[in-house]
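Two quick folds needed for the group meeting slides. Do the first one here.
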Amino acid sequence: MSPVNTRDRILRENRSRNDWTSVPKHGVIGVMRLGAVGEAVLNIVAANLQEILRVPVDILPARPAPEFAYNNNRKQYHAALILKKLAESSRPHPRILALVSVDLFIPVLTHVFGEAQMGGRAAVVSLHRLRQKEEGSRVSLDTFYERTVKVAIHEMAHTFDLVHCNQAECIMRFSSGTDDLDGIPLFFCEYCEAFLDDAYRRYEIQRLPD
């Protein structure tokens, strides 16, 4: 399976799929942007979720930035509050993923690239720290897109009950920073792939054909 990483390829693929923004297909996953998030990265994440998880994915209408989750003491946005709001969505999709440009935190960590409800409905990915290297310089667009896709796949897999994996060659491996994230592959190990198949059976989710 060849994941989609570049903007040119995703734009070609989108044009062959009768327009993501047409009448909703009510797929398994709905992807939306909250606030200032570019359309290109949204499309790339949606296509890769569908390609790698092999379930139908819809792009949902954009929503405002999650100001309700802002914490003035931390000068960041509380990921758990965003997840709670997403989980309450009236959309028919069993899973909802939001992309945000703001910096996320949970109380026990200084920041998070993403967060998800384990075995729940909602996941969120922050682009804030994925655009740059750990020392502060910017990374290429391809690296930024690939990082975002990795975090999105990782967090969405948590909603299907997958936990962190100790296999070096697995997207479910925990990453402590962007350098570590860059070394993680864009695929599941055989064990996590099997766990994902089992989760789909339990949740009665039909994979797309290969």
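Then this one, please, same format:
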Amino acid sequence: MKKIKILIILFIFLLNNNSSFSHVNHYDNLKYLEYELYLNNALIGSHKFHFNKKGELFYVVTDGHFKVNKLGINLMNYHTETEEIYQNGQLLKFTSNTTQNDKKKYVNLSFNKKENVIEIDGSSFKGKTGPSSIVGSWWNHSIINKKTQISAVSGRIIPQKVKFLGKKKININDKNFDALHFHVLSDDNKPDEKKKINLHVWYDKETLIWIKMSYNKLGRWEYRLKKQLFY
């Protein structure tokens, strides 16, 4: 037990002392991730991630959707498409287009090498942020080591705080994982139930693949890993 605690502490130390670049490069051999989305344990949608490495460039393309119906009435229809492009680990570009019912949101983000900043044009925020900023798409485990994240839906910059809750064994789709469990909260003075972010996220201890996420908002939502492929 003592050895396990030492390994966990060492793991967190390494996360805190590595550059954001190394975290992206960690996924060079990743090809595909697919998640199922549940609301109150009922399957309502999916989210698919396609990864492709071409020379110095690393591409992440996603497609996610879900529908919420009650008594035959369509309460929510959500669809999002995104693309991330990295060069040697540095985020170069991110775009997203999201439709929630009839409301459209977007993000167009690019790295300005000359000024060493990330420029954001989003439906909720337009401005600049530092070059190490990360988009809140969760596949990249280094998000748990950041003080802020950029909303993948609207471009808003959200301060966050993260608590490591330990290593736990969890079962998803009849597969067992040794998981690292984190609690992520918006870093503001609002009560927990009104925070922009209040969720639990699990990463596989061996591969650092995102395997599960859960949060409560008018019900219990869960992302569960369905499929993972490597080159």
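Slide caption for protein two: The first strand starts at residue 30 and ends at 39.
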